[in-house]
Amino acid sequence: MRLVECVPNFSEGRDQAKIDRIMSIVKADKFIKLVNFESDADYNRTVVTLLGDPDKMIDLILNMVNVCLNEIDLNKHSGEHARMGAIDVIPFIPISGVTMKECVAYSEKCAELINKTYDIPCFLYAGAARFDSRVSLPSIRKGEFEGMKEKIKEPDWKPDFGKAEIHPTFGCIGVGARDFLIAYNIDLKTDREKPTKSIARAIRKSSGGYQFVQAGPVYLENRKHTQVTMNILNYKKNPIYRIFETVKMEAKRYNIDVIGSEIVGLVPKDSLIRSLKYYYACNGLDFPVDMSLTDIVNNVKKYLLFRDFDESKIIENFL
Amino acid sequence: MRLVECVPNFSEGRDQAKIDRIMSIVKADKFIKLVNFESDADYNRTVVTLLGDPDKMIDLILNMVNVCLNEIDLNKHSGEHARMGAIDVIPFIPISGVTMKECVAYSEKCAELINKTYDIPCFLYAGAARFDSRVSLPSIRKGEFEGMKEKIKEPDWKPDFGKAEIHPTFGCIGVGARDFLIAYNIDLKTDREKPTKSIARAIRKSSGGYQFVQAGPVYLENRKHTQVTMNILNYKKNPIYRIFETVKMEAKRYNIDVIGSEIVGLVPKDSLIRSLKYYYACNGLDFPVDMSLTDIVNNVKKYLLFRDFDESKIIENFL
Asked: For position B231, which CATH number holds?
């Protein structure tokens, strides 16, 4: 079974009717499994997690671009999360029977077809990047939809597919291939962005922290508290518990409580087991040889304060 | 005042008579301030911290090479710490009125004179490295004295000064320029090297940890416990308290107590203040506008469990 994960992010997280119309295309697809999707009103963005055959995946992505082109006008869009396209980013992730190199080829094919069909410029990023300066999606996206209008005309920022002009309502897209990453957010009981930022800086690579952590502060208007929002690019070398505990340690100096944490999208079972082993060992408990998904869910809620989490977020549930 | 720090490490930490004869040369020098020296029997190594004018510093270093040539035969040396020379490493560190670039030039001059005078091959490392593969001293030193006999003959490992042959009793030296670093060790109440190594891996850059930390495990025969031994290359981005607390957090899963920590050589006052501010804030205490060196010493003993520490290890004491 040839299986890739694909996690397109589209720039609508508030208008339920629009979200429904876009997701109906995804739900109607007979070949691709919709693992999960989450709309965030603060971010004004929806993260869609898909599993399936890579060629069938590209077919669905093209349909998603089509519907987003009709539904979303970035000139009218605002939200906490940086974005440059109505579909902002399309990563291909090898899961089973597919190599990273093949995922690069699929991302190239996908970008080429999107551009050919809809005249939307595409940038290849992460494992598919053709320039060092394009490995990091935030570097490409800097300036966002509004800034990309001029930025894309610079010789350094000519898109990998398409002409040097963003689509007037859709913008442009980052298409790439990458290893599995965990999108993880830690809730802080504060509305102060400054200490939240200091805590993010303590853990993220770009400020001297853990090698495989990208993190930043964000204030969630709806929830009335801040988060350290992050990607963990390698959960084996930077396990969830270590990041969670380091954030607790740093939060202490600001007298801020860590009140929860959340996974966006999917996690491998192994990433949770590794963290639970830490807490079991700290408490002098033997770790069971085989822990059920139900027990894993209960334990991560207890020790890592996961909220809005259930078995459907564990990738093994779908394999 | 033009001031550099220089921290030559020589490979004798057990034979007091030899150490005394080597140190008498250093103590007799009228121009260079001996800040501190520490012999470690487990490491079989002495770390000497010097402050002074860079040209006078080179004069003293040449005298030290001369005496070590007479006193130390690496064919008869063993110890916990990796080494490739009777004087193993000579770093020049800008302190005041001297730039990093000038320190590179001083290290080159020093290496050239050592080679010319004593026919000892020298490798330029860190800021003075002429090849990417020589930035890291451990990469150069890999194989140690014994392995360097053959390694130095490989085209990739031709020394920067001298012929491709180590000195038969002295070995070879790494000479370089670098920013101020803190040599810091954390004591674990265990004799088990495996968990000590896992803890070191959690915090060090090379295994995914903090960006400016180089760390490894070591067992101290004399003290009968292990240490996480480390260099902190940037104490502003990776403050001491954060590393200390992360080690405590990781040690918990192995049910190992952190029983102390120690500075080898010197630290800037600022590095201690930064860490004490963390503990004061955690305890809801206001941090005093000006803390005396005595109070700093007492506080780092209390919060960071520093042992064998006093004002003479704070660099501001000498300025």
From this structure: 3.30.70.670
**Which residues contact residue A163 at a Cβ distance below 8 angstroms, ignoring those fewer than 6 apart?**
A121
Q: Note the pLDDT tens digit of each residue in A168-222.
A: 999 999 999 998 899 999 999 999 999 999 999 999 999 999 999 999 999 999 9
- Chain pair A-B, CB pairs under 8 angstroms: 54
Interface test mutation site (partner A, options B233, B243, B245, B283, max chain A beta carbons within 10 A): B245
Cβ contacts of B205 on chain A, cutoff 8 Å = 211
The nearest alpha carbon in chain B to A234 belongs to B208
Cite the active site residues of B.
81
- Per the structure, the complete domain to which residue B31 belongs is given by 3-177
What span, in angstroms and rounded, lies between the C-alpha atoms of A229 and A261? 10
Among B162, B177, B192, the domain boundary falls at: B177
DSSP state of A13: S
Subunit contact B282:A245, Cβ cutoff 8 A: no
- Chain B positions touching A211 (Cβ under 8 A) are 205, 208-209, 211
Measured between beta carbons, which residues in chain B are less than 8 angstroms from residue A252? 281-282
Query: Are residues B8 and B147 part of one domain?
Result: yes
pLDDT score for A193: 96
Bridge pairing between strands B182-188 and B213-220: unpaired
A249 touches chain B (CB under 8 A): yes
Alpha-helical (H) ranges within A72-136 are: 100-118
Q: What CA–CA distances, in Å, run from A289 to A178, A286, B198?
A: 31, 9, 22
- Alpha helix segments (H runs only) across A126-186: 137-141, 144-151
pLDDT on residue B86: 98
Say whether B220 sits in a helix, a strand or coil: strand
Q: Which residues contact B95 (CB under 8 A, 6 or more apart)?
A: B3, B4, B5, B51, B180, B315
What is the reported pLDDT for B265?
Answer: 84
Select from A212, A242, A255 the Cβ nearest to the Cβ of B202: A242
Q: Does the CB of B283 have a partner CB in chain A at under 8 Å?
A: no
Residue B170: the pLDDT is 98
State which amino acid sits at residue B45.
R
ipTM exceeds 0.85, yes or no: no
